[in-house]
Amino acid sequence: MDDEKKLLINQLIVEVSKLDEEALQQLFDITKDELYHLTMEYLNDKETRDRVLSLTYLKVVRRAKYFNSQTSDGFDWICQILKEISSRYQKKSFNAQEKKITNAKK
Residue 106 has what pLDDT? Predict the structure, then answer.
């Protein structure tokens, strides 16, 4: 990702922290494809990937006021949020599979 795009993402996150809906839409438009591809590395089914992506943007809005555009890379920051949410869904999926296996043995 080029420096100009990184700078724009940082600026948009700052605007999102002010609850600017247009900034959120722009942020979504310029990051959604790369973030969706990232979800494909962590999650198998499309429904879960879509849910995780939605939750990621919701959390971006909630956490934007804590983002420091002077010291942080906004895209990396968003990716970290996505990874945290994806990890929770992976654990849920694993636990559900474990229950099925355990119940099948009974």
Answer: 53
